Request: fold
Amino acid sequence: MIERLKERFKSNYQASPAVIAAAPGRVEVIGNHTDYNQGPVIGAAIDRGVVVALRRIDEAVFRFSSADSSVIEISDSSQRQRGVASWLNYPLGVYNALIRRGLKASGGFEMSVESDVPSGAGLSSSAALELASGKAFSEAYGLTIGLDELAVAGREAENEFVGVPCGILDQGVSACGKAGHLVHIDCRELKFSTMPLGDDFSIWIFNTHKKHSLVESMYSQRHEECRKAVEQLKSAGLEIEYLADVTPEEFEANKKSLDIEIAKRAEHIVYEIDRVKRVRALLVEGKSAEVGRLLFESHASSRDLFENSVEELDYLVRILESMPDVVGARLTGGGFGGAAMALAGEAFTETYAESVASAYRGYFGETPVVIRCRIADGARVLESASK
Reply:
């Protein structure tokens, strides 16, 4: 991919890039809908990602190309793009976020992008593009910035420039990933840390390509239900700001004060946050194989309490639970369709994965896309003319 990127850069711009940087896609391991409730979440950077080639130029223009587009040239880096050029908003948003953090902009730049993140698989190619661009910009312009702050700049770009109200999970994991480790994010304090998982595990993605027709409105509805849970618990006497402030014991003592549906949503979040904490403790203690039970519990909670699973995901998780060396499985991402993930050891092979896909095909008449991911490093500079 890197050599192909260099060749295309030279073909498009008749020059060699000064910087090549990369950032990975990510998988949500556990912490379903905990981010906007200010709770923790755990994710994994994967060995699929985005690579960016960049060079600064004296001319005040900005040129972009990708494997899917010819060269696009713009003159105003602060202007949001539309239509076929809308993908430019991810690197442009990061560029502007870094200017606010001290990047001294002068002239323009030329950029080329390559990606091997499968589209539509929920692996966050957008965050990978943001973080790879951020590493390339900071290297090319001599800006010293830590990975934590680069992740925040990426989220800022997506929230404010692209216009997507995402949390910090995608950017945080893409920035701070480490091979053989999972990334823990404290979404309130914006603190990032890694915990050893070991090199003997893979993450398997089974993408149904199913999506509920009302996914956006249902996501917004869950967000609102969590807000109502906070208000009702405050009315019951709890001094809280977010559901992350509620312990399981406090929830059990006060859940009768909640409307029935609101209580189910709150119960999922409160106990999901507790599961994230327990997974982190197990990983710190070196008990990676014991986290699987909590992944299965997380899925059951999403299915029964948060009600953001679908029949296809429930079927996949049920089949995966019966397979050899599958440590744990659950839906991943926002839910209401999409993909299931499985954390598995070396004995779970392509043959077993195909048997899962075959069973799904026999039941639903369609074949899920299966992707095996290794846990990889986060955003980094691969080559630099200044080094």
Summary: The radius of gyration is 21 Å. The CA atoms of residues 227 and 242 lie 8 Å apart.
